[in-house]
Amino acid sequence: MGSSNLELIFDSVGHFGRPMDTVRIAVVGAGVMGLSTAVCISKMVPGCSITVISDKFTPETTSDVAAGMLIPPTYPDTPIQKQKQWFKETFDHLFAIVNSAEAEDAGVILVSGWQIFRSIPTEEVPYWADVVLGFRKMTKDELKKFPQHVFGHAFTTLKCEGPAYLPWLQKRVKGSGGLILTRRIEDLWELHPSFDIVVNCSGLGSRQLAGDSKIFPVRGQVLKVQAPWVKHFIRDSSGLTYIYPGVSNVTLGGTRQKGDWNLSPDAEISKDILSRCCALEPSLRGAYDLREKVGLRPSRPGVRLEKELLAQGSRRLPVVHHYGHGSGGIAMHWGTALEATRLVNECVQVLRTPASQSKL
Amino acid sequence: MRVVVIGAGVIGLSTALCIHERYRSVLQSLDVTVYADRFTPLTTTDVAAGLWQPYLSEPSNPQEAHWNQQTFNYLLSLVGSPNAANMGLALVSGYNLFREAVPDPYWKDIVLGFRKLTLRELDTFPDYSYGWFNTSLILEGRKYLQWLTERLTERGVKFFLRKVESFEEVSREGADVIINCTGVWAGALQPDPLLQPGRGQIIKVDAPWLKHFVITHDPKRGIYKSPYIIPGLQATTLGGIFQLGNWSETNNIPDHNTIWEGCCRLEPTLKDAEIIGEWSGFRPVRPQVRLEREQLRFGSSNTEVIHNYGHGGFGLTIHWGCAQEVAKLFGKILEERNLLRIPPSHL
């Protein structure tokens, strides 16, 4: 489909009866970042229309494979205070949902458990300890369950599951008048001039769409199994072995394979994951209905959260980049979506300031 | 040595197993049989949610506290085995909620990771202002009884569906020792004014997103009269009914509404939960567990009876400690009758 046809569709959608003031925003990507940013924009940026455009939607996004545990990673390139703020904002947002009647619809649950260490860590209390609930060190009696481990954290946190959360977000986007479009964007300029601002939430797609060589996949393979008697999460501090009980299955993981783009499950890896998890929780030997899944974490030394004004000849296209969360997508999504929305607001202010129009 | 266990709830079956495990190897003539008029899934044990948790106040008999602890430690030693789920056994964490500060329970160091709730955690429960968090165990009645039945069957213990009308009838058939595990119906074999039914009603729902138990307390109303939500291995139990002296075994609608409204208030997502079933049962309430020997004389013979009933709403919580105590008493009977053969290698 040529770009002129695309303009026709967008224009017929955008121009019909639209007041002079409406800023037309395209959000590229419909994983947790794209959808949550669309929701934030609809709530916080007045006078705009939102269209979410993606080639993949739930249940086929990376966010659908993720277990969605609110246990944040550490981004080397981001100040700790900022990470803590993002995590706290996400936690508070999901905690409000879990305490409401919508929790099950939104796929958000409370779950308690343990993060265990084979040697005593230099940092015994992580930066996020007072964000999760009831954080404390494991007692000696609790550690007896894990004879290979000498130290641990016990806490209660949240799990937010893509297959329910993404449809819940999509409902909210549509409910506020937003549109959802299935289309593969090969170049951000395809969105010009039909849209005034582009929010780029394309994850690994930014390698192409933003020419960003800093983003690379970290392949994760998991097993989603039936083991409803497992009520606690167990996470080895290396992040390689974990057991995350969810709404209707238990996620067993995992792998962290840098630079590996392969989306097909590997049977040997599945066997290895099951064996490592059974070592921590022997009752998993009775797990049934095992399903293999693969996701590519969109990894980057830090989340890219910044504005960029694309220029080509006389054409200008303001872009807000919002991608690169690696293994911390669900854990950080709302905090970074709020920040992305602030950046979008800044772009909107610029567009609405008459003096600036000569700059465009 | 013929042993007859009357009763096939958790008390009867676990006591039978404990005796068999301990004495079969040293007493070749040991023959254990179980008589009951109800087997799983029709016993009181089958209705229980199965959470290990004693009452909040210390028992009048300090031995009961000890038996609770023995049971917890025994189950904890098994929860890490691959078979745990087949036994109906799993670790579970959760909340005990109060409207005002209360002293810590005597069992706080038996369970794992006991602590008070933080203010943020209490935000989840707007009607409550104080509480505890701890990790405990679930031992699901139905699964556990099935497991006990398998273990007993492997050992050659026989089961008979029959309603025993008197100790005498069992004695005249040749029983040397009778273990009385008849629960709330013990009064039919021997009047016991201290034993009363504590009727409970529960609703089982499918709510797999709930991972924690939530037990509310209203000290003015008394134990189990306040809503509770207990996730099991597959289904979740909702309850909050305790009616002393009520022998009605049918589910009633006002109780259903009390449970449903109370639990939905506590956990609003329950509105989406599918109801699997509803059951009533009688907690065998007694000021203390009756665990003691009694010698009954029928005709020319003495029959030993060991009573083990009256475990109220904490049968699963206390069962193994009691089973071991009964086994100890049984051992004394064997000694008194010079039946314990000491193998030569031990001399």
From TrEMBL, chain A:
Residues that bind D-dopa: Y242, R297
List of residues binding FAD: T62, S63
Single GO MF annotation: FAD binding
Record's catalysed reaction(s): D-glutamate + O2 + H2O = 2-oxoglutarate + H2O2 + NH4(+); D-aspartate + O2 + H2O = oxaloacetate + H2O2 + NH4(+)
EC number(s) stated in the UniProt entry for this protein: 1.4.3.1
Named cofactor requirement(s): FAD
Record-annotated FAD dependent oxidoreductase domain positions: 24-342
UniProt keyword terms in alphabetical order: Cytoplasm, FAD, Flavoprotein, Oxidoreductase, Peroxisome
GO-annotated cellular components: cytosol; peroxisomal matrix
Pfam families xrefs: DAO (PF01266)
Location relative to the cell: Cytoplasm, Cytosol; Peroxisome matrix
Top EC class of this enzyme: oxidoreductase
One Gene Ontology term from the biological process aspect of the record: D-amino acid catabolic process
Summary of the function given for this chain in its UniProt record: Selectively catalyzes the oxidative deamination of acidic amino acids. Suppresses the level of D-aspartate in the brain, an amino acid that can act as an agonist for glutamate receptors. Protects the organism from the toxicity of D-amino acids. May also function in the intestine.
PANTHER family hit by this protein: D-AMINO ACID OXIDASE (PTHR11530), D-ASPARTATE OXIDASE (PTHR11530:SF11)
Family: Belongs to the DAMOX/DASOX family.
Descriptive protein name: D-aspartate oxidase
Species, as recorded: Moschus moschiferus
TrEMBL record, chain B:
Positions of the FAD dependent oxidoreductase domain: 2-329
Binding site for FAD: 37-38, 44-45, 49-51, 164, 182, 312-317
Catalysed conversion reaction: D-lysine + O2 + H2O = 6-amino-2-oxohexanoate + H2O2 + NH4(+); D-methionine + O2 + H2O = 4-methylsulfanyl-2-oxobutanoate + H2O2 + NH4(+); D-leucine + O2 + H2O = 4-methyl-2-oxopentanoate + H2O2 + NH4(+); D-valine + O2 + H2O = 3-methyl-2-oxobutanoate + H2O2 + NH4(+)
Gene Ontology biological-process annotations: D-alanine catabolic process; D-serine catabolic process; digestion; dopamine biosynthetic process; L-leucine metabolic process; L-proline catabolic process; neutrophil-mediated killing of gram-negative bacterium
Transmembrane regions: none
Cellular localization per UniProt: Cytoplasm, Cytosol; Peroxisome matrix; Presynaptic active zone; Secreted
A Pfam family it matches: DAO
Coiled-coil stretches: none
Stored PROSITE patterns: DAO
Family as reported in the entry's similarity comment: Belongs to the DAMOX/DASOX family.
Protein name: D-amino-acid oxidase
